[in-house]
């Protein structure tokens, strides 16, 4: 088993006033050749946007973009005609494919919106742009792995154009459970949203990240009540990026 540890305070940071963002991997003004991605997981941004502020219309292509609000609500609009609000307890994926313009704003004027924006390289380029949104609150599982992203439109959560599975784990202090990887050649990037946990001898606190690969399974233990995001992704980049 191979691992890499990214403590919370090692992330890139940019505070623009209206946007306070921490970058696990290289993004915008934060560039570190040793922190370009974890396999096909390209971006993990931990964002806080002030009330009424946001990102104006801008382009994307050939990327799977996943948004998960944890406080407040995020307003989304894109060139495919999709317009709506992503609330806490929901998840959205946008497949940029052949090209899409979108904007994201804090839906509320009087409170911050706190969310993760995650980018995953797709298996192939040139897919039709699309957006999908669903509730993950109804399927919440205590002391279990709740699937929120998969490659299959018929499974729980949203689906993306990649052999990737994301799970939320809300564990009580002292609870542990083995995670078995879905596909050979994949790795898992573990990101602690709050609380603390342990994998082997590695203790993980809030906003720490821990990558694991070259293994079939590992055990995750909560050392305090914890909420954790597990992102299983292929470790080999697709041919179009080589």
Account of the 3D structure:
Residues 9-120 form the Pirin N-terminal domain. This is Redox-sensitive bicupin YhaK (Pirin superfamily). InterPro entries: Pirin, Pirin_N_dom, Quercetinase_C, RmlC-like_jellyroll, RmlC_Cupin_sf. The protein has 242 residues and is mainly β. It has one domain (2-241): Jelly Rolls (Sandwich), CATH 2.60.120.10. 0% of the residues lie in helices and 54% in strands. It contains no helices and 22 strands. The chain has strands spanning 2-6, 12-15, 19-23, 41-49, 54-60, 64-71, 73-78, 83-87, 90-95, 100-106, 113-120, 130-135, 145-150, 158-159, 165-171, 176-180, 186-194, 197-199, 202-204, 209-213, 217-222, 226-234. It has a 7-stranded mixed sheet with strand order 1-20-17-22-15-13-14, with no helix packed on it. Strand 2 (12-15) and strand 3 (19-23) form a beta hairpin. It starts with a strand and ends in an 8-residue tail after the last strand. The mean pLDDT is 97.
